C-alpha cells in the first residue's frame, strides 16, 4: 500500500492553440471547453523525494491524440532527478556522472517523457499506460481518454514545504499544437481501490451537379520535387511501393488525385420527401500508409436539431452554443466500421442520416454543412457560389442525385510536420 495522505497535487491546464491561426483565433467554437489536463499526484515520500502518479486527460470532444502519441516535458525547479519510472520513460538519460552505484533513470534539467508501447511487460506497467501515447477523445470514448505513468523523483525535498512545482510544461502531440498554462496547486485526487471498499487520496437540392473538390486542396506535389508522394490506383508497382516504404512511416503516400488529400468526405443528398430528407455520408481514405482507428467526423449543420435517425454510425450532439443543437460528432460502431482501412477497396466507411424538415429549406446551398472536421482537422469547403441555388419547391417526391465532395485542409501538412 502506498503511503498516507498529504495535500499536494499539481493541476496543469493545456488549452488548444492551433498553430495555423493567430493567437486571437485559437479558440475552437465547436469545442469551447476542450482541453488536455495533466494531474501530478504525490502519493508517497522517499528518503530524498517522492513518488507521483502523473495522469493525462484528453478532455477534447473530438480530437484524438493519435500516433505517434503524446510527449510531455517540463523544467525542474531545483536539481531534481528521476530515479525510476513505470508506465513511461524519459527519452534521454542525460549526464548522471555525479552518481556512483545507483544510476538514475534521467538526470536532465528538462526531461521529456513518452508513453510505453502496447505489450510492455506487466512489471513495467501502471494503470492507463502503455498505449504508445494514443488517447481517444473524451466525447467519443472517455474510458480510453486518459493515460498515466508513475515517477520516482529524487533530490526534491521530502515535505510540502520543500518540494517545488516543475515549470514550463510542454505537450507535443500530432495536431494543431498545444500551449500549456502554469501549474496550479489544487485539491488532492481521490483513488478508489479495485474492490471499491477503500478510498485514498494523493498527498497533496434539385440538381445533378457534383460540387467538386478544389484542385490541389491539400497541396499538390510533383513527383520530380517530391518523388513517391503519390501513386496511381492502377499502378502495377503499387504493392511494392507501399511495402517498400514500411508501415512505420507517418509521411502520407496518397493516391494520385486532383486534390492530393489523404481523406475525402462525401455528402450526398439522396432523397427528398415532403417532411423528411436523407443524406448518405461516405468517408474515403486515400492514404496508403495510414489506417485510421477510432476516426470521427464533426459536422455543423442547422438541421441536426431535427435529426430523426442515423444508420451504422454513432452520434453525439456537441451543442457548443448552449441550447443551439447544430453540431454533431459521428464515429464508427465498434468492430463494424470504426476502422478506416488504407486506400483500396476497403478504404471507406459510410452511413445514412434522416432529417425532419420542419422549417428547413434547400435554397441557396443550405443542404450542405457549414463546417466539417475529420479527426479534428478542418476540411476544405467549396466556395459558396459553387453550390446549386435553385428553387426550394418541386412537384417531385424525390430529388436527383446531389453530391458534395469535401477534402481535408491541413491533414497532409500536419502529417508531414510530425513525420
UniProtKB/TrEMBL annotation:
GO biological process: cellulose microfibril organization; plant-type cell wall cellulose biosynthetic process
Top-level division of the source organism's lineage: Eukaryota
Annotated InterPro entries: COBRA_pln (IPR006918)
PROSITE patterns: PROKAR_LIPOPROTEIN
Record-stated family: Belongs to the COBRA family.
The UniProt record lists the keyword Signal: yes
Pfam family of the protein (one): COBRA
Protein's name in the database: COBRA-like protein
GO CC annotation, single: plasma membrane
Signal sequence annotation: 1-26
Keywords associated with the record: Glycoprotein, Signal
Amino acid at each position: 500500500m502506498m503511503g498516507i495522505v498529504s495535500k499536494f497535487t499539481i493541476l496543469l491546464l493545456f488549452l488548444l492553440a492551433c498553430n495555423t491561426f493567430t493567437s486571437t483565433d485559437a479558440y475552437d467554437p465547436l469545442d469551447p471547453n476542450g482541453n488536455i489536463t495533466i494531474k501530478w499526484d504525490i502519493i508517497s515520500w522517499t528518503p530524498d523525494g517522492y513518488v507521483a502518479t502523473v495522469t493525462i486527460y484528453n478532455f477534447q470532444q473530438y480530437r484524438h491524440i493519435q500516433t505517434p502519441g503524446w510527449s510531455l516535458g517540463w523544467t525542474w525547479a531545483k536539481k531534481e532527478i528521476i530515479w525510476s519510472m513505470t508506465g513511461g520513460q524519459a527519452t534521454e538519460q542525460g549526464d548522471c556522472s555525479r552518481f556512483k552505484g545507483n544510476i538514475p533513470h534521467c538526470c536532465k534539467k528538462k526531461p521529456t517523457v513518452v508513453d510505453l508501447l502496447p505489450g510492455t511487460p506487466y512489471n513495467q506497467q501502471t494503470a492507463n499506460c502503455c498505449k504508445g501515447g494514443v488517447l481517444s477523445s473524451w466525447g467519443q470514448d472517455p474510458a480510453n481518454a486518459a493515460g498515466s505513468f508513475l515517477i520516482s523523483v529524487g533530490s526534491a525535498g521530502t515535505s510540502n514545504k520543500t518540494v517545488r512545482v516543475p515549470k514550463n510544461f510542454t505537450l507535443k502531440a500530432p495536431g494543431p499544437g498545444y500551449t500549456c498554462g502554469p501549474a496550479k496547486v489544487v485539491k488532492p485526487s481521490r483513488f478508489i481501490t479495485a474492490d471499491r471498499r477503500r478510498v485514498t487520496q494523493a498527498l497533496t437540392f434539385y440538381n445533378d451537379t457534383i460540387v467538386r473538390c478544389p484542385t490541389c486542396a491539400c497541396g499538390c506535389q510533383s513527383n520530380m520535387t517530391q518523388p513517391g508522394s503519390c501513386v496511381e490506383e492502377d499502378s502495377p508497382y503499387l504493392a511494392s511501393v507501399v511495402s517498400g516504404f514500411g508501415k512505420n512511416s507517418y509521411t502520407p503516400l496518397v493516391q494520385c488525385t486532383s486534390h492530393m488529400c489523404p481523406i475525402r468526405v462525401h455528402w450526398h443528398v439522396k432523397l427528398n420527401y415532403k417532411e423528411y430528407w436523407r443524406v448518405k455520408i461516405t468517408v474515403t481514405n486515400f492514404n496508403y500508409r495510414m489506417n485510421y482507428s477510432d476516426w470521427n467526423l464533426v459536422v455543423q449543420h442547422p438541421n441536426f436539431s431535427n435529426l430523426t435517425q442515423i444508420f451504422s454510425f454513432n452520434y453525439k450532439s456537441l451543442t457548443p452554443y448552449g441550447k443551439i443543437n447544430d453540431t454533431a460528432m459521428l464515429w464508427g460502431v465498434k468492430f463494424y466500421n470504426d476502422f478506416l482501412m488504407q486506400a483500396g477497396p476497403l478504404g471507406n466507411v459510410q452511413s445514412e442520416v434522416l432529417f425532419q424538415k420542419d422549417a428547413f429549406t434547400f435554397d441557396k446551398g443550405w443542404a450542405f454543412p457549414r463546417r466539417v472536421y475529420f479527426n479534428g482537422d478542418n476540411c476544405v469547403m467549396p466556395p459558396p457560389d459553387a453550390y446549386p441555388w435553385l428553387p426550394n419547391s418541386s412537384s417531385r417526391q424525390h430529388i436527383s442525385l446531389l453530391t458534395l465532395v469535401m477534402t481535408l485542409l491541413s491533414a497532409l501538412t500536419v502529417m508531414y510536420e510530425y513525420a
